[in-house]
Amino acid sequence: xxxxKLIAEATEARLKSYSPYSAFAVGAAVLSKSGRIxxxxxxxxxxxxxxxxxxxxxxxxxVAQGERDFTAIAVVADSKVPIVPCGGxxxxxxxxxxxxxxxxxxxxxxxxTKTLSELLPYPTQGILESRENV
Length: 134
Ligand code: THU
Fold this sequence. Notes:
Layout: H1 4-14, E1 26-32, E2 37-41, H2 54-64, E3 70-77, H3 87-96, E4 101-106, E5 111-115, H4 116-119, H5 128-131
Parallel strand pairs: 3-4
Antiparallel strand pairs: 1-2, 1-3, 4-5
Bound molecules: tetrahydrodeoxyuridine.
Tetrahydrodeoxyuridine is lined by residues 19, 22, 24, 26, 42, 44, 51, 53-55, 75, 83, 85-86, 89.
């Protein structure tokens, strides 16, 4: 079952998007185990690589409030098909919960849910393990 509350919060956050370069507004809402919801939107920059994704904003807002135990995240965009978090955001989410439930939704009502384990297998392999060989 889709978390409609989370999708609604992400949809609202999307309205605050600062995306003059891509004109592609994205909203995200992350749910913590305590039941609190934190939202974010994409914030672009003239130097494209400095752009912050909606998921990043939501996670940063939650962590700044002392929440790190996330169970689900919703991402909303006005796209034909639901958009999947970028590789960097998958890694960011994996830092806190490699199995978090990721719901992707469009304004037209399309929904898709996957676990982060499906979107990003082996999230830690190659980082900590390689340190032992240094
Ligand atoms: N974007 C997000 O905020 N989240 C995603 O999951 C995918 C992409 C943003 C980054 C950029 O501002 C715009 O969407 C186009 O890629």
